[in-house]
Write a structure and sequence with these properties.
Layout: E1 10-15, H1 21-35, E2 39-44, H2 49-52, E3 60-64, E4 73-75, E5 78-79, H3 81-93, H4 96-109, E6 114-118, H5 121-129, E7 133-138, H6 142-153, H7 158-168, E8 174-176, E9 188-191, H8 203-210, E10 217-222, E11 241-245, E12 258-260, H9 267-272, E13 276-279, H10 283-291, E14 296-298, H11 307-316, E15 320-322, H12 325-330, H13 334-340, E16 361-363, H14 387-394, E17 418-421, H15 428-443, H16 455-463, E18 470-482, E19 492-509, H17 518-521, E20 532-537, E21 548-552, E22 557-558, E23 561-562, H18 565-573, H19 582-595, E24 602-609, H20 619-634, H21 641-656, H22 663-670, E25 675-680, E26 685-691, E27 696-702, H23 712-740, H24 759-769, H25 779-786, E28 793-795, H26 796-803, E29 818-820, H27 822-842, H28 848-868, H29 873-886, H30 889-893, E30 898-903, E31 911-917, H31 920-937, E32 943-944, H32 951-954, E33 956-960
Parallel strand pairs: 1-2, 1-6, 2-3, 6-7, 7-8, 8-9, 10-11, 10-13, 11-12, 13-14, 14-15, 20-24
Antiparallel strand pairs: 4-5, 9-16, 17-33, 18-19, 18-33, 19-24, 19-25, 20-21, 22-23, 25-26, 27-31, 27-32, 28-29, 30-31
């Protein structure tokens, strides 16, 4: 519109239906547009007063229409991912055609000159159809938020992400606000300062109106548009404090030190008059807390990808304190409020973003799968204040120390700690971990504690008594060479430990000597200290989770006995931001339950994992194995590696709630460097270690698409496989009964003639009628007797009505869901055959035929995954690139270098395993694949190469700070 003679424009401003935060920032932009003489039509689902309290003008028009739903929240902190996608489908996908037709007609009727969206996808497409330009004004986009939800909902919802991204692509550019997430659907970007509502009344005026004394401190309790219906009690506040409550219901009773604000109360006035703000992290709360320099005590929301970026901005400007959700609900507020009042927020940036001032243009890259991937090589513009966390997560070791250890430093580790037991084996990541521990100890000394550090670093330096012994364990991830999801069906699997590993440092102390965080101290009973578990996790920014976790160990005991796994699962899932702690703390409960161990001392644990999450290389198994190994070492427990792996599987299956097989834990615990662990998963029989021929090498290439064995795709495929086994057993039982009965007239049952069965055939049917693992059914028997008799798919309701149960203890059947049966059943039967052939071929004479056959088996495995519904665009693309490289003229003229590739682990994204000749040319071709993948997706994939010893081979270290370092 530059150069137009028209001086007054008509703006159509679409506001998302997610909460009030979007509406409140829209208010400030709208006010500036109207002040400049323009006409604004706001399309919103929020109440009128949100807009009219700030702007009353004949040029403001409010149209009450809801065109998207945002994230569905059960309360202010709980997001229902599946319900969010379902509601979006009902709100914006199914009626899409009628929405577009209506909006195009309306835009033309009001003669709109420009559409602004915050951040309604369909509004952008409607503008394009109406021939009107559109822009978005936001700090995030829904394709990025929903990408995480699709991981839980399954493959069938992925089209929602692409539709949203396509809608956004019709925008001219995005006006991007501070604290932004990657917004991959937009190419052109204009950055502006914070958009913040102005306050109207002075601090003194607000306090006078509300009857607050000058001597009283004020806490404002604000969880946005969500009702604050939690029970509030007088003792929640420190002495001398008053709390202003936003969003309370009309019938909610308040203690004498709580004041209920009217629903239409202008929140910026209340915030500016307060000393501390308690609430969730949203853009509106964050921007106003920073602008008015009011410390924010925040409680994390689950499954909202916007939050880590805003949270890091708050903490960068020293304006935030995190409160654990259970302390919010149980009223242990005082330690957090007292900490917050000591902060001195230092935000000094602009707050006039509503004027759309200070703009500069940038470019964002498209990231495959619309996933944030915080690793080296990604190509996304990240705010300057986020670079510290960004760089920390880029390192393979996920340690606070970023320095690369030179060869001379590797011999001086005794300068940091005296190793009383064990051997670091020269492993660079272990040496780096020991150095980082020493740096933590040093930073905790008074003369060094003024250095700006991350919260996880500060928390870690404060949990250990550095004068006492510390135990260190190490467990690697694993590269799934062959076997994958066939493990839960009893297959032979071949797994290689990765070079990347997880380290755990642990210390036990008598409760009276345990160093506790302040909020944990507040829980201690008056009669004397009790045992507490405190955990710090480095790399918490990889997911929306807290860097620390603590609990009273008595929480694991009920009536003198360990609580059930079901209760433990519920304990950890009630706060999704701290659910990660189940992988670590769950090892303690499993040892209590399965081995009868009593834990009377307090325990401090530091977890630092360099095994990237969501890549299909068993980051969770590495954490579990390293944690249990460390706990066992600190308590003098001698647990056989195989048994330890099985115990760790119980953690993941029953406490975490992920239905994985046992191969991940076995590889991490029992594997050895540069060898394949061969194991029959019935349940965990290690056949031995398979040497990798010197002519062969394996690599892993990350697709950039996050996967989860807790996701619905993996679960549904597992359910389908167990359904198939139950159906096969039932068919075999029917045929066996018919063959044993005295039927005078031969009858055919489903094409089976009982007279054709001899004694050997009856024995075979007996075996199949009691089939314990699918993989014990041979491929030829499956094809001969069952392949055509299994349904392609079956509803949960139909299956339960006919077969009652699928006999899998770690998954449940959803009666409303339709499950694929034939492909998930076929996969493990054929995979078991492929793995056996693969293992045999590894010992064959080196040749191109050997490599070609091994590669072909991997390709077959990959496409079998896809048939089960566990493929992904990214992994398919990588496999295709390997195929193209393998069959290129240059490669064929050299006799071949790369020979095969397959998706790994749970599928639906993650890592691709590649086999090739162990030569320099193979590495060059992998680099070329990286470059070609980045060119087409914007994502530079991480390559896993090399191997390292499993946890059992590494053992554990017992370390002690040298006396000279203590002074």
């Amino acid at each position: 519109m530059v150069g137009s003679e028209k001086k007054s424009f008509v703006f159509a401003y679409y506001v998302t239906g997610h909460g009030f935060g979007h509406a409140t920032r829209v208010v400030e932009v709208v006010r500036n547009l109207i002040q400049a003489g323009h006409e604004v039509h706001v399309v919103t689902g929020a109440p009128d007063y949100v807009y009219t309290i700030e702007t009353q003008s004949p040029r403001l028009f409010i149209r009450k229409v809801l065109l998207d739903c945002g994230a569905v929240q059960a309360d202010a902190l709980t997001v229902d991912r599946l319900a969010s996608l379902e509601k979006y489908n009902q709100t914006a996908v199914l009626p899409r055609d009628s929405i577009l037709a209506t909006e195009v007609e309306w835009l033309k009727s009001v003669k709109a000159d420009l559409v602004i969206s915050d951040v309604v996808p369909v509004a952008c497409r409607a503008a394009a159809d109406a021939g009107i330009r559109a822009v978005c004004c936001t700090n995030f986009s829904w394709d990025f938020i929903y990408a995480d939800y699709v991981m839980a909902s399954g493959y069938h919802n992925r089209s929602i992400i692409w539709q949203i991204a396509e809608d956004y692509s019709h925008c001219e550019f995005v006006i991007r606000l501070p604290g932004y997430c990657p917004m991959p659907a937009f190419r052109d970007v204009i950055d502006v300062p914070l958009v913040v509502r102005r306050f109207h009344k002075t601090r003194e005026k607000v306090r006078e109106e509300l009857g607050i004394l000058d001597s009283q401190k004020v806490l404002i309790y604000n969880f946005g548009g969500q009702p604050a219906g939690w029970k509030l009690k007088k003792e929640y506040l420190p002495e001398g404090w008053i709390c202003l409550v936003c969003g309370a219901s009309e019938d909610q009773e308040m203690p004498s030190n709580f004041i209920k604000l009217p629903k239409d109360y202008y929140t910026p006035d209340a915030i500016a008059a307060s000393d501390v703000l308690l609430g969730k992290i949203g853009y509106g709360t964050t921007s106003e807390a920073l602008a008015y320099k009011v410390p924010l005590v925040f409680v994390r929301r689950d499954y909202f990808n916007e939050e880590p970026f805003l949270r890091n901005m708050i903490e960068h400007y020293q304006a935030g304190v995190e409160m654990i959700r259970r302390d919010l609900l149980t009223g242990r507020w005082a330690p957090y409020i007292e900490r917050a009042i000591t902060l001195k927020p230092c935000y000094d940036g602009g707050v006039n973003g509503g004027e759309l001032s200070g703009a500069r243009r940038l470019r964002d890259a498209i990231v495959l799968g619309y996933q944030l991937q915080r690793i080296t090589g990604k190509d996304i513009a990240i705010p300057e204040w986020y670079s510290l966390a960004q760089n920390e997560l880029s390192s393979r070791t996920q340690l606070p120390n970023k320095e690369v250890l030179d060869s001379s430093s590797l011999t001086r580790q005794s300068d940091y700690f005296t190793i009383l037991h064990g051997d670091h084996q020269g492993l660079q990541d272990t040496l780096g971990f020991l150095k980082s521990l020493a740096e933590m100890e040093s930073s905790g000394r008074p003369q060094n504690n003024n250095k700006l550090q991350t919260r996880e670093h500060l928390a870690a330096s404060a949990i250990f008594n550095w004068e006492e012994e510390i135990f260190v364990s190490r467990a690697p991830g694993r590269l799934d060479v062959m076997g994958g999801i066939a493990d839960y069906s009893g297959s032979l699997v071949l797994q290689m430990p990765t070079r990347e590993s997880c380290h755990v440092a642990i210390q036990r102390n008598h409760p009276s000597k345990h160093k506790l965080w302040k909020h944990a101290q507040a829980r201690q009973p008056k009669e004397g200290p009790t045992a507490v578990l405190q955990i710090v996790s480095f790399g918490s920014e990889l997911g929306n989770r807290g860097p620390t976790f603590d609990m009273d160990l008595s929480d694991f005991v009920e009536d003198g006995q360990p609580i059930t796994y079901e209760k433990a699962y519920n304990y950890f899932t009630r706060d999704p931001a701290q659910k990660w702690a189940a992988y670590v703390a769950g090892t303690i409960l499993v040892l209590m339950t399965e081995l009868g161990i009593h834990f009377e001392d307090s325990i401090s644990i530091l977890v630092s994992s360099g095994v990237p999450e969501g890549k299909g290389v068993s980051s969770s198994a590495a954490i579990e194995v390293a944690s249990m190994t460390a706990v066992a070492a600190a308590h003098g427990l001698n647990i056989d590696p195989r048994h330890l792996a099985l115990l760790c599987q119980k953690v993941e299956n029953h406490i975490v709630g992920a239905p994985c097989g046992v191969m991940d834990q076995m590889a991490s615990a029992c594997g050895e460097a540069n060898k394949l662990l061969a194991m029959v998963c019935q349940p965990a029989e290690v056949l031995g270690l398979v040497d990798i021929p010197p002519t062969i090498r394996f690599w892993g290439i990350d697709s950039g698409i996050r996967h989860s064995v807790g996701g619905s795709d993996y679960k549904s495929v597992r359910v389908g496989a167990f359904m198939g086994r139950k159906i096969i057993k039932s068919l075999a039982s029917v045929e066996l009964c018919s063959s044993l009965s005295n039927i005078s007239t031969p009858q055919q049952i489903n094409g089976f003639n009982p007279d054709d069965v001899d004694e050997d055939g009856k024995n075979l049917l007996e075996t199949e009628a009691s089939l314990d693992y699918l993989c014990n059914l041979s491929a030829h028997r499956y094809e001969a007797s069952y392949a055509t008799r299994l349904p392609e798919s079956l509803s949960g309701q139909e299956f339960v009505e006919k077969y009652l149960d699928h006999d899998d203890s770690v998954t449940t059947i959803d009666k409303e869901r339709n499950y694929a049966v034939r492909a998930p059943t076929r996969h493990p039967i054929y995979e078991n055959f492929r793995v056996k052939a693969f293992k045999a071929l590894l010992s064959a004479s080196p040749s191109n035929y050997q490599l070609s056959a091994l590669g072909e088996l991997m390709y077959q495995c990959h496409f079998s995954y896809s048939a089960c519904g566990l493929g992904s665009n990214g992994t398919d693309r990588l496999v295709n690139l390997v195929q193209e490289m393998q069959h290129s003229k240059s490669s064929e003229s050299e006799g071949g270098t790369l020979f095969g590739a397959k998706i790994t682990g749970g599928g639906s994204g993650g890592t691709v395993c590649v086999i090739g000749r162990n030569c320099l040319r193979s590495n060059e071709q992998l680099i070329e694949i990286q470059q070609r993948y980045k060119a087409s997706t914007g994502f530079s994939p991480y390559v896993f190469e090399g191997s390292s010893p499993g946890a059992a081979k590494f053992g554990y270290l017992k370390i002690h700070l040298p006396s000279s370092s203590k002074s």
